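Support request, please re-run this one:
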Amino acid sequence: MTTPRRSSTAVTCFAACDPVTIRRMGEYVQRLLAQDWRPTSRYSVAAWLVFYIVFLLYAFSQHGAFLFIDLANLVVHEGGHLLFGWFGSTLGLWGGTILQWLVPLLLAAYFFSQRQAAAFAFCSFFFFENWLYTATYMADARAMLLPLVTAGDSDYVEHDWHTIFSSLGVLQYDTKIAAVISFLGWCGMIGTVVWLARRSLANVGCSATDSPVSS
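Re-run finished. Output below.
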């Protein structure tokens, strides 16, 4: 009696990703990276830089407290629980943070493909700002002092990161993990602002070099 041959998911996956498809994807990425960013006025870039600097100072002054932009993050977060909850309780639990990070990340990827620098920087900046929001939630995993909001049954409010860290066996490290996430978020936000500033300065330098000089 012969045993039936089982199919391999891994083999099927690699078979679908044939070399031609991979090469075409690589060529698309190369063409995309070779394209110039769309022009942005110096006044517009300057206004955005002022906005980001003011926001960074505001966020720093709050020392991890709830920021006004987190009201929007909260709505997306709760929507993520409802959306991913269709795929099971575990994914539904993670879904709040997944969607909260995924929305600005996908928007940043779209504006990157369209080579719109200001819009790409805005979405990237607030993608990393979401890390501060998540870090605050993580740091509260053991204490559970933060007021919680739910889009479901108000009689059953679950602390996402208390449950997640407990299931992973790392609940005692909640504040340390939160500190790392917060640090990376700050690095991402500051890095985005530096990138936008350097890109605008480089464009100003190129414009000055390319401008005709009368003799």
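The chain has one domain: 40-59+66-200. Confidence is low (pLDDT under 50) at residues 1-15, 208-215.
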